[in-house]
């Protein structure tokens, strides 16, 4: 540069242009270098992600999923495992593979169609043999059959253990096993016992199966074959979607998106209330985010990821920790207070399901910036205020206040729902202005 400038000295004006031209070139070159570097690191990072996906964790492919199901069927034919889904899966071809949804740490989630109904096939582990075998079966003479009462006893123990309920208490029989026992009348086969045992080792299965008839806010288990069980296919929520749920997937009839959102919100409220009151013990959801909920066609909200759902006794166990401050007493979305005298966390949860739902689901959903034109409607403003109040109320501590907050949200949402339907009767161009902003994601 220095010698160049000297050489250009006698002709200042031209030199200036040349200099600028040179400068631009230098500038461009560094841009180019920068772009190349950026591109290089992008390729490198993508490569890393790819390697991670394919080698380190097992990335889900159709080929692998089909092989896994084939192995299940081989074992079914060998008589190692069984279940009410096996015949349709392995013999009559009534289960049609669709795609795989998810593999992580061995967990398999596969979408399929069973006799025309969309289902999700799930198993925590890929292979039947990876599950702990039922010790009883090894000690028993193979010719001798186990008495049904033994089976029921072990199954009940396993279930109570898995749900964290009091083991010493009255071992009441979960309806499912009692019913099967009565239908069967006699003994279970080895394949049946081994299959049952592999399913009982999957907390999610146990949880869903036992609470099956007690709540409509949990996914229905439709059948099983060996260690795989089928649950109803639902439309899962997405964090990236403003509406959380893909309303197109469930929309039936002339409902507006806004109407559907209010119905879904009401179902969330219903779920929060029922999980607090419908079971013998309060049910705590400690991982509340859009992806962990789904909706049915009738807009009922369903909790699909129950790995972080605990009944009160287990919740108390989990929360009771040594601590030096309140931050030590946070277990995901379930928090309690640190008792500074004993340095132990309180075993009573300080917040409630509803409070976290308000914070993580309702607030972003009904937030004023995203509501756009609708924000001005009087009820919407009230709703935002009620949601904020719900976020600020420590629900686990004051029952009375908790109920008040709940009732206020319920009244507002019901009001908005009626407002919505009555303006529909008035036809287009009403105060609702649905036609003016026809299709932003924000328009509900
Ligand atoms: N009943 C269902 N209907 C439709 N999709 C489902 C259903 N159950 C699970 N999925 C999809 O499969 C994915 C994984 O399922 P699931 O949540 O059971 O796995 P997980 O290991 O518990 O997930 P996480 O890592 O979030 O804890 C979910 O994100 C969801 O999109
Ligand atoms: C499952 O079984 C197959 C075939 O027997 C084997 O190749 C695979 O490694 C097993 N997977 C696991 C996780 O054990
Ligand atoms: C179990 O329940 C039955 C009826 O509900 C009762 O008669 C029995 O005493 C209970 N047993 C125990 C150990 O609590
Ligand atoms: C908690 O603290 C008690 C005594 O302060 C101690 O005995 C115990 O081991 C601690 N537990 C854990 C899990 O750190």
Strand content: 5-15%
**Domains (count):** 2
CATH architecture of the largest domain: Orthogonal Bundle
Structural class: alpha+beta
GO cellular component, one term: endoplasmic reticulum membrane
Subcellular location: Endoplasmic reticulum membrane
Biased composition (Basic and acidic residues): 425-437
Family: Belongs to the DIPK family.
What does this structure look like?
With 444 residues, the protein is an alpha+beta fold. It folds into 2 domains: 57-233, no CATH class; 236-425, Transferase(Phosphotransferase), domain 1 (Orthogonal Bundle). Helix content is 49%, strand content 13%. The protein has 16 helices and 14 strands. It has helices at residues 2-8, 12-56, 62-78, 86-91, 135-139, 148-163, 175-184, 190-200, 203-211, 247-250, 257-277, 312-319, 353-365, 368-371, 378-392, 399-425, and strands at residues 95-104, 107-114, 117-123, 221-225, 228-232, 235-236, 283-285, 293-295, 301-303, 309-311, 330-331, 334-335, 338-339, 344-345. The protein has a 5-stranded antiparallel sheet, with helices on both faces. α6 runs parallel beside α8, α11 (257-277) runs antiparallel to α13 (353-365) and α15 (378-392) packs antiparallel against α16 (399-425). The longest helix is centred in the first third of the chain and has 45 residues, at 12-56. It starts with a helix and ends in a 19-residue tail after the last helix. The model is unreliable at 1-12, 167-178 and 424-444 (pLDDT under 50). The chain crosses the membrane at residues 32-51. Residues 425-437 have a biased composition (Basic and acidic residues). This is FAM69 N-terminal domain-containing protein. It holds the Pfam family PIP49_N. It is found in: Endoplasmic reticulum membrane.
């Amino acid at each position: 540069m220095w010698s160049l400038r000297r050489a250009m000295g006698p002709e200042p004006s031209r030199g200036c242009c040349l200099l600028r031209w040179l400068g631009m070139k230098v500038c461009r070159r560094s841009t180019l270098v920068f772009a190349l570097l950026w591109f290089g690191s992008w390729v490198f990072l993508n490569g890393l992600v790819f390697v991670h996906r394919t080698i380190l964790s097992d990335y889900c492919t159709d080929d692998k999923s089909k092989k896994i199901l084939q192995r299940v069927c081989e074992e079914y034919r060998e008589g190692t495992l069984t279940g009410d889904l096996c015949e349709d899966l392995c013999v009559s071809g009534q289960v049609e593979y669709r795609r795989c949804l998810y593999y992580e740490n061995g967990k398999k989630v596969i979408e399929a169609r069973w006799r025309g109904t969309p289902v999700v096939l799930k198993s925590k582990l890929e292979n039947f043999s990876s599950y702990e075998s039922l010790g009883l079966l090894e000690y028993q003479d193979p010719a001798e059959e186990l008495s049904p009462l033994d089976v029921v006893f072990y199954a009940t123990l396993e279930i109570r253990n898995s749900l964290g309920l009091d083991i010493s208490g009255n071992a009441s029989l979960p309806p499912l096993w009692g019913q099967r026992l009565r239908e069967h009348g006699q003994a279970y086969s080895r394949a049946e016992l081994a299959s049952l045992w592999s399913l009982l080792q999957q907390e999610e299965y146990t949880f869903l199966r036992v609470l099956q008839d007690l709540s409509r806010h949990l996914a229905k288990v439709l059948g099983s074959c060996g260690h795989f069980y089928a649950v109803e296919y639902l439309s899962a929520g997405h964090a990236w979607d403003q509406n959380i749920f893909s309303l197109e997937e469930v929309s039936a009839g002339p409902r507006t998106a806004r109407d559907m959102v209010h119905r879904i919100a009401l179902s969330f409220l219903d779920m929060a209330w029922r999980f607090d009151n419908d079971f013998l013990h309060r049910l705590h959801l400690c991982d509340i985010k859009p992806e962990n909920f789904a909706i049915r066609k009738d807009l009922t909200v369903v909790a699909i990821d129950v790995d972080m759902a605990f009944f009160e006794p287990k919740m108390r166990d989990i929360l009771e920790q040594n601590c030096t401050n309140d931050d030590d007493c946070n277990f995901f979305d379930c928090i309690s207070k640190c008792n500074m005298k004993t340095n132990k966390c309180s075993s009573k949860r300080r917040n409630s399901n509803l409070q976290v739902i308000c914070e993580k689901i309702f607030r972003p959903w009904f937030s004023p910036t995203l509501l756009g034109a609708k924000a001005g409607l009087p009820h919407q403003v009230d709703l935002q205020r009620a949601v904020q109040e719900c976020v600020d109320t420590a629900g686990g501590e004051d029952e009375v206040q908790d109920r008040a907050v709940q009732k206020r949200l319920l009244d507002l949402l019901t009001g908005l729902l009626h407002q919505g339907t009555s303006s529909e009767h008035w036809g287009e161009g009403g105060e609702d202005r649905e036609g003016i902003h026809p299709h932003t994601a924000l328009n509900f």
